[in-house]
Amino acid sequence: MPPVSPMLAKAIPSLDKLAVGEFHFEPKFDGFRSIVFRDGDEVELGSRNEKPLTRYFPELVEAVKAEFPPRAVIDGEIVIATPGGLDFEALQQRIHPAASRVKLLSETTPAQFVAFDLLALDDEDVTGRPFRERRATLVETLPDPGRSVHATPATDDIVRARRWFAELEGAGLDGVIAKPFGLAYQPDKRVMFKIKHARTADCVVAGYRLYRSAKGGAGDAIGSLLLGLYAEDGQLASVGVVGSFPMATRKALYAELQPLVTDFEHHPWSWAALEAGARTPQAGQGSRWNNGKDLSFVPLRPERVIEVKYDHMEGTRFRHTAQFGRWRPDRTPESCTYEQLERPLTYDLTDIVPGLGRAP
Question: Do 270 and 328 belong to one domain?
């Protein structure tokens, strides 16, 4: 019965240290993790935080009724597939409070479900079975290929898994998952392994946000640095942030960066403006994760260059918060362009999961 927390994966740097012949490998899809429950006409789409996603994906509710076994609990990923690959930004837009908007998006950007584990079938809880058995039963119970529900591709060939890791990012996949053959399903435990892409980029430091304590107060310490890259038109684009500094570093950075503080009149980001004495981004530049989050920042003259680590891009921005690498006093800000970024090879989703790129 819902809610059930999904089984998790811990990051490892590569596939090289995994014992050959003991693991099952799957592409890592970039979407919303969801455990789906079906009992006849009753369907619930669970989520990572255990809050149901059911109301946001009515088209998937109908797909589950048509393509799932009559009574089953299946773990997988909700995705939106396009001819250019998976579209996580379109997926985020599906989480909307207005029912009319949800209905419209369900028709214009329909989601699909990629299944990768079986938790229950009919009256049986199968979480205690070895993963190899759960996988075999999952493949047997799902349509091949489904219109909206698909079993993830899988292999026990580590050579093929390495090829997936190297090639499939161009379709929007962001790594590989490794599961021991004998693994029981363990909710909220990091017992699988994930291998994700890690890259570096030299970025311009264009501003900072103040560190805020658990009580909400802001002091003389840096919370995060705002990063920019120059586009082909010569404009400095916002690409993300770097944070997670030790407190001593936060305070030292605050003092170090004060000579670079400027105002928005002399700053390259014209979308930022001063309002009522506060430095606040204009409408439309809010957080992608929290609509109520305060994104006010202090602008800096774009003179410092920092090397950061990132996994992959979502459009023109880093998909996740970048990690600090080192300062690059040898680089000029103008040399920090998008051209330095590695461009994954394009890959057709239908070559990975037949039917996934096709409109359901």
Answer: yes
